[in-house]
UniProtKB/TrEMBL annotation, chain A:
Pfam families per UniProt: DUF2849 (PF11011)
Top-level division of the source organism's lineage: Bacteria
Organism: Hephaestia caeni
Name this polypeptide is given: Uncharacterized protein DUF2849
TrEMBL record, chain B:
Domain Nitrite/Sulfite reductase ferredoxin-like, chain residue ranges per copy: 52-110, 343-393
Name of the protein in its database record: Sulfite reductase (NADPH) hemoprotein beta-component
Gene Ontology molecular functions: 4 iron, 4 sulfur cluster binding; heme binding; metal ion binding; oxidoreductase activity
Species name: Hephaestia caeni
Residues covered by the Nitrite/sulphite reductase 4Fe-4S domain: 119-273, 404-542
InterPro entries: NIR_SIR_4Fe-4S, NiRdtase/SiRdtase_haem-b_fer, Nit/Sulf_reduc_fer-like_dom_sf, NO2/SO3_Rdtase_4Fe4S_dom, NO2/SO3_Rdtase_4Fe4S_sf
Length: 98, 544
């Protein structure tokens, strides 16, 4: 599957395209198929995202999992600071990245 | 340290307001990211993996307590309670919101801090020996000369749109703590037989994709001609630089392509021409600046004795302090390399402790080191025990300066958008493996440096043991290098062979270190043994 991601213009937070909007949770991301670039340009023009990019991911039972570790780290947060990730209470969350 | 006059303050304040307006226009959609990016970079603002990252300039790594407290305030108020010291003595905040940056910069401006020239094709923040003004082995404090150069070049149109970034480093000691030969221009203050001060000038160094060690191009440049000599260097580079090719823009490539002799000839020719223009600032200007760097009022008649009855304190003193030029004083190094921690990271609360200690015990001075530690440069030996106790309470009393766990690691793929691989977890695993202090002490000086990509912010080319993260088909892989140095015996590390995964590279480091232990002769450091026996025995142990 293909995901559309970028950073929020004002906060810089990593965001994922949900089909209607942007979410900081990758679980909300949808497969953008071939539409990613067009959506990304429109959303960037509307200043709802900065640096949109289409990435490869795998659909898993737990939701989309980016093919590249860089985007898995973007999705969760720094592996060396579990307390600052989106899932600070989940001790297993880091395994999803590696 | 230098203090702003009314003009400096006006310039920095105006710059903040200018950026406030630019941010407003970006958010309102009057500027695209392509238009805004060069403007934000000129104010130290990057977009990294998880958020915007703001880099603050710390010239010569020198900070006063008000500045350290402001760094703590920003970490607490706008970030997540911590920040990161870089290998160029700056500080980075990793969780910054664009809309808050103008307020952050306004706060910094109140204590004479800014983010100017922390990015872009400019003369970057000038770095220096972290012991400058305190070291027993220096000729004089080199920072007034560095500050003079900074003041003349900042916003100077000739240096505002350089072919690429440009880095100066200064020292005034025979032992190089500032890695001067890894800079575009490295400057060592020396004194000639007539008692005049001048600079050894090294040019064409740099790490990154194509590492080069700077070459000596002038053994003595009179100190009061420093600016015009540097101007001549920059002009020769500007004239020939390959602005069309990003991989060839740095001055090191030009020095290499022209050859150091031809490069030097052209610099000397340009220097002779500039001499006719009278570009150098008058001596009075240097004296004005030097007054800000006047030594603090050291007490005289102090004892050099240190009560070492507490064995943990004695260990800390032996490892973490260095010789000071004033009798009865010592330079105290604060390790930011706790075992299993993140090298160079410091919490807001710890910053406050450092500020308090500097105020109380170090004439209000703190330094940041390129090895990502902190220094209290002027501590009375009689106060060391009190300083140590406060550091213990703040979790800052680790004993590992220049040892195997004093690892330089760049932020790597945990934070950096350019990274191929994570650096910090590798550093943490190595540190845990060698956590035993006796083992560390037995190994002696051993500098491990880790970069998450070829840009080499973690100085892997200069590591006794270097590690470079690479991307192998979407997975992290690590190359191992041996034999580098950033000290006065500068050398370029060599790759051992095929790369490793994360655990593999930690094992390989241990094998290299055990090989050293087996081969060393009395008093030999890892680097000395490597230089004596060469790569082969290490390769054999690692891959055999
Ligand atoms: S070396 Fe590469 S990964 Fe590390 S901080 Fe520099 S650019 Fe980022």
């Amino acid at each position: 599957m293909k995901l559309l991601t970028g950073n929020d213009l004002k906060t810089g937070a990593v965001t994922w395209w949900t089909g209607r909007d942007w979410s900081i949770h990758i679980e909300d991301a949808v497969d953008v198929g071939e539409e990613g670039d067009a959506i990304g340009s429109a959303e960037e023009g509307a200043r709802r995202v900065n640096g949109p990019v289409v990435i490869d991911a795998e659909a898993t039972a737990d939701g989309p999992r980016p093919a590249h570790i860089k985007h898995r780290i973007r999705a969760l947060g720094p592996t060396v600071r579990p307390d600052l990730t989106l899932k600070p209470a989940d001790p297993q969350a880091g395994n999803w990245v590696i | 340290m230098y203090r702003y006059d009314q003009y400096d303050q006006q310039i920095v304040d105006a710059r903040v307001e200018e950026f406030r307006d630019q941010v407003k226009r970006r958010i309102a959609g009057h500027m695209t990211e392509d238009q805004f990016k060069p403007l934000r970079l000129k104010n130290g603002l990057y977009l990294q993996l998880h958020a915007y990252m703001l880099r603050i300039a710390i010239p010569y790594g020198t900070l006063n307590p008000a500045q350290v407290r402001m760094l703590a305030h920003v970490a607490r108020t706008y970030d997540r309670g911590y920040a990161h010291f870089t290998t160029r003595q700056n500080m980075q905040f990793h969780w910054i919101k664009l809309e808050q940056v103008p307020d952050i910069l306004a706060d910094f401006a109140k204590v004479q801090l800014h983010a100017i020239q922390t990015s872009g094709e400019s003369i970057r923040n000038i770095s220096a020996d972290q012991y400058a003004g305190a070291a027993a082995d220096e000729i004089a404090d080199p920072r007034p000369w560095a500050e003079l150069l900074r003041q003349v070049t900042t916003f100077h149109p000739e240096f505002s749109y350089l072919p690429r970034k440009f880095k100066f480093a200064f020292t005034a000691a025979p032992g190089d703590r500032a890695a001067i030969r890894w800079h575009d221009v490295g400057l060592r203050l020396v004194r000639n037989d007539a008692g005049e001060d001048g600079f050894e000038v090294y040019a064409g160094g740099g790490m990154g994709r194509t590492p080069f060690i700077a070459e000596l191009i002038r053994a003595f440049c009179p100190a009061d001609r420093l600016f015009s000599y540097c101007q001549a260097i920059l002009r020769v580079w500007n004239r020939h630089a390959r602005r069309d090719n990003i991989h060839k823009q740095r001055m090191k490539i030009l020095v290499h392509d022209l050859g150091v002799e031809e490069f030097t000839r052209q610099v000397e020719e340009e220097f002779a021409h500039i001499a006719t223009l009278g570009n150098d600032p008058p001596r009075a200007e240097f004296d004005r600046i030097a007054a800000y760097f006047a030594p603090p009022p050291f007490e005289t008649g102090l004892s050099d004795e240190i009560d070492r009855s507490d064995p943990d304190f004695a260990l800390w003193v032996d490892r973490q302090t260095a010789a000071h030029k004033a009798p009865g004083y010592a330079i105290a190094n604060i390790s930011l390399k706790a075992i299993g921690g993140i090298g160079g990271d410091i919490t807001a609360d710890q910053m406050d402790v450092v500020a308090d200690l500097a105020e109380r015990y170090s004439f209000g001075e703190t330094r940041v080191t390129h090895a990502q530690n902190v220094v209290l440069p002027h501590v009375r030996k009689a106060d060391l025990y009190a300083v140590w106790q406060a550091l213990v309470a703040a979790g800052l009393a680790d004993v590992n300066l220049d040892l195997v766990t004093d690892i330089i690691a760049c932020p790597g793929l945990d934070y950096c958008s350019l990274a191929n691989a994570r650096s910090i977890p590798v550093a943490q695993k190595i540190a845990r493996r060698f956590a035993d202090l006796e083992r560390q002490q037995d190994l002696g000086e051993l500098k491990i440096k880790i970069s998450g990509c070829i840009n080499a912010c973690g100085h892997h080319h200069a590591g006794h043991i270097g590690i470079l993260g690479v991307d192998r088909k979407g997975t992290e892989n690590y190359q191992l290098l041996l034999g580098g140095s950033g000290a006065e015996d500068t050398t370029l590390a060599k790759i051992t062979g095929p790369g490793f995964d994360e655990d593999g590279v930690v094992d390989a480091v241990e094998k290299a270190i055990e090989t050293y232990r087996g081969l060393r002769t009395d008093g030999e450091r890892f680097l000395d043994t490597y230089r004596r026996v060469g790569m082969e025995p290490f390769k054999e142990a690692i891959y055999g």
